[in-house]
């Protein structure tokens, strides 16, 4: 009976012994994973990892800004709001760098949309718009100087003032005539396909993300400018709360056969 009791005690405690040994084996990697996630949540990051979640988030961010720009009267004001909301610079006011000694003749379609005949003078202006050190967009403008006042023409010809700020006294409205997505973070059919394996590397983001073409009108609906705005990858250069590590990448990238 005594031996039976000892055997009973050992057999009764055996599952707990096995569990404790198994738990110890799991404890170290689990602790590393949790400490990594804890450290990540306490910091902020600007880089985007090449994971399914990050690609979905990048697409959502792009589409959100795209919708705001399409609905706005001024791309300059919208980008300044974006800069402020995302803490991308101490001073969220956009700065423009005028690219001098460049020219691009207006197309016949542009002249037609601006109601500008062959004898009407059109001027061309190209600028880069930056929020702090982040170049958010490049803008190509064709405009009719005779439909602007002298001060507006002076600002456009001799300073780096953003176009939208220089002409804002006209009560500008805009009509979008084209919008192109230049980068698609997710492949066609992604919404019905299984998520791809993570690359466990930084997400490769191209320099140009999307572009708009629009005609600008005065408050009296007189067209005075056509603009092509190309939005750059720097719109994603804001600090984000770190996301939990993808479990597939915790132990390193997947091995290749």
The main pleated sheet reads as: 6 strands, antiparallel
CATH architecture of the largest domain: 3-Layer(aba) Sandwich
State the helical fraction: 25-40%
Class from helix and strand fractions:
alpha+beta
Summarize model confidence as the mean pLDDT. 82
Q: Can you write the helix and strand succession as a string? A: HEHHEHEEHHEEEEH
Number of contiguous helices? 7
Radius of gyration: 28 Å
Number of domains: 2
Q: Termini, distance in Å?
A: 58 Å
Shape: elongated
User: Low-confidence parts, pLDDT < 50 over ≥5 residues?
Assistant: 1-43
**What's the CATH first level of the largest domain?**
Alpha Beta
Total beta strand runs: 8
CATH topology of the largest domain: Chorismate lyase
CATH superfamily descriptor of the largest domain: Chorismate lyase-like
Task: Report the β-strand fraction as a percent range.
Answer: 15-25%
In the sheet with the most strands, the strands line up as 2-3-4-7-6-5
Task: Describe the protein.
The chain has helices spanning 2-42, 52-71, 75-85, 108-113, 150-158, 163-166, 247-250; strands at 44-45, 95-98, 123-131, 134-143, 173-181, 208-217, 223-232, 240-241. Mean pLDDT is 82; it is low at 1-43. The chain folds into 2 domains: 2-42; 47-186 and 202-241, Chorismate lyase-like (Chorismate lyase). The protein has 257 residues and is α+β, with helices and mostly antiparallel strands.
Keywords:
257 residues; 2 domains; Chorismate lyase; two-stranded antiparallel ribbon; 7 helices; disordered N terminus; alpha+beta
């Amino acid at each position: 009976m005594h031996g039976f009791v000892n055997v009973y005690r050992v057999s009764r405690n055996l599952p707990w012994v096995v569990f404790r040994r198994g738990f110890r084996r799991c404890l170290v990697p689990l602790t590393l994973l949790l400490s990594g996630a804890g450290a990540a949540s306490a910091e902020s990051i600007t880089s985007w990892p090449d994971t399914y979640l990050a690609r979905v988030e990048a697409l959502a961010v792009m589409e959100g800004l795209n919708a705001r720009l399409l609905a706005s009267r001024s791309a300059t004001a919208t980008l300044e709001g974006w800069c402020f909301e995302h803490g991308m610079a101490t001073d969220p006011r956009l700065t423009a760098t005028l690219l001098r000694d460049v020219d691009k003749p207006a197309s016949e379609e542009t002249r037609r949309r601006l109601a500008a005949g062959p004898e009407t003078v059109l001027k061309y202006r190209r600028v880069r718009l930056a929020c702090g050190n982040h170049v958010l967009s490049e803008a190509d403008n064709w405009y009719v100087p005779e439909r602007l006042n002298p001060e507006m023409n002076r600002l456009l010809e001799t300073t780096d003032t953003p176009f939208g700020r220089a002409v804002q006294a006209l009560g500008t409205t805009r009509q979008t005539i084209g919008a192109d997505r230049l980068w698609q973070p997710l492949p066609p059919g992604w919404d019905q396909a299984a998520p791809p394996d993570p690359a466990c590397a930084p997400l490769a983001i191209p320099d140009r993300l999307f572009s708009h073409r629009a005609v600008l009108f005065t408050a009296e609906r007189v067209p005075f400018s056509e603009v092509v705005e190309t939005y750059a990858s720097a719109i994603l250069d804001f600090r984000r709360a770190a996301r939990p590590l993808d479990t597939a990448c915790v132990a390193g990238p997947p091995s290749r056969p």
